[in-house]
């Protein structure tokens, strides 16, 4: 894609798409965004047209959107679980310093949050909850 002003860049679209489809979700989104940012306005429009063809676009965009939705849903569930940990601690009168509050809220590992929620039900300190 060295000659981004060249209309021959269109010939690279199938190979680019094939490469993007082999990547993990985060990498796919990253490289898609990098590619689109480097294209001229005209080439970007042609890339988008290529992706929107019935044979190509629906699968590509559906895959990307499903991956983004799944990650957003997982983050939302983790955030809710983290809030539950904090709510249990708060309802039991266990103080939670700001640094540990941020650690709990920043955790996205559902199994770790489950462990912490169980511990929060009986712990006397927040350190008892987040211990390894």
Give an account of the 3D structure:
The chain folds into two domains: 7-68; 75-130. With 132 residues, it is mainly α. It contains seven helices and no strands. The N and C termini lie far apart (49 Å).
How is the secondary structure organized here?
Elements: H1 13-21, H2 25-38, H3 41-51, H4 57-91, H5 98-106, H6 110-120, H7 126-130
Main traits of this protein?
single chain, 132 residues, mainly alpha, 7 helices, rod-shaped
Short description:
This protein has 132 residues and is an all-alpha fold. It contains seven helices and no strands.
Uncertain regions: pLDDT < 50 for 5+ in a row?
A: none
Radius of gyration: 23 Å
- Indicate the proportion of strand residues: under 5%
Q: List the secondary-structure elements in sequence, H or E.
A: HHHHHHH
Count of discrete domains? 2
